[in-house]
């Protein structure tokens, strides 16, 4: 048995028993919010429960470290689509303590890539093509500063509606406690 076969077997039973019905909702978030958070496994069920969210309440974007790495990358595109197309009226950037992105070692990751068969000469090609692996794979030293940086990127994005509050929070991955880093309501442009 593989993990995939286990998933497919469960899924057949799930669909046959119509267990999906309890999750029925629309593509529009009921609480009209979009959340960018980390892909950490501890947050999968904990964070929505800690925020009193049910299926259909929010758009949730997951990425390593809840970091907005590029102003025109897929994370920022997803946030903008949630705001302009999917009726999200607020943005929440939620990092967490004990994040794996706070201890990223680029050399170790590249070493793992080479061990799994990636040609080490490829990294020279990437370097000469303008791809700085250390920058591309970078994490952060301080989750609070990382959340502030991502909030600033979203809030000050040239395509972001200035009336949309962009909040920054840090979650504790064991308890779900949320600490406000920046309250987006304090920065709304009323004009």
Automatic annotation (TrEMBL):
Keyword Transmembrane helix part of the UniProt annotation: no
InterPro entries in UniProt: Carbonic_anhydrase, Carbonic_anhydrase_sf
Cofactors required: Zn(2+)
Residues in coiled coil: none
Keyword Metal-binding: yes
Key words of the record: Metal-binding, Zinc
Lineage top rank: taxon: Bacteria
Residues reported in the UniProt entry to bind Zn(2+): 38, 40, 96, 99
Gene that encodes it: ytiB
Name of this chain's protein: carbonic anhydrase
EC number: 4.2.1.1
Catalytic activity: hydrogencarbonate + H(+) = CO2 + H2O
Record text on cofactor binding: Binds 1 zinc ion per subunit.
Family statement: Belongs to the beta-class carbonic anhydrase family.
Organism expressing this protein natively: Sporosarcina luteola
GO molecular-function term, one example from the UniProt record: zinc ion binding
């Amino acid at each position: 048995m593989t993990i995939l076969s286990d998933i497919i077997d469960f899924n057949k039973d799930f669909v046959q028993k119509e267990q999906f019905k309890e999750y029925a909702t629309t593509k529009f978030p009921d609480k009209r919010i979009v959340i960018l958070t980390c892909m950490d496994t501890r947050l999968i069920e904990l964070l929505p429960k800690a925020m009193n969210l049910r299926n259909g309440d929010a758009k949730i974007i997951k990425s390593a470290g809840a970091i907005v790495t590029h102003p025109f990358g897929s994370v920022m595109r997803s946030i903008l689509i949630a705001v302009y197309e999917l009726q999200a009226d607020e943005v929440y950037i939620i990092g967490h303590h004990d994040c794996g992105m706070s201890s990223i070692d680029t050399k170790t990751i590249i070493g793992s890539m080479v061990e799994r068969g990636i040609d080490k000469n490829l990294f020279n090609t990437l370097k000469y093509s303008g791809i700085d692996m250390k920058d591309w794979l970078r994490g952060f030293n301080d989750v609070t500063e990382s959340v502030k940086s991502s909030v600033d990127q979203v809030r000050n994005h040239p395509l972001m509606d200035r009336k949309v509050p962009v909040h920054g929070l840090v979650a504790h991955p064991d308890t779900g406690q949320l600490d406000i880093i920046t309250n987006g309501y304090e920065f709304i442009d009323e004009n």
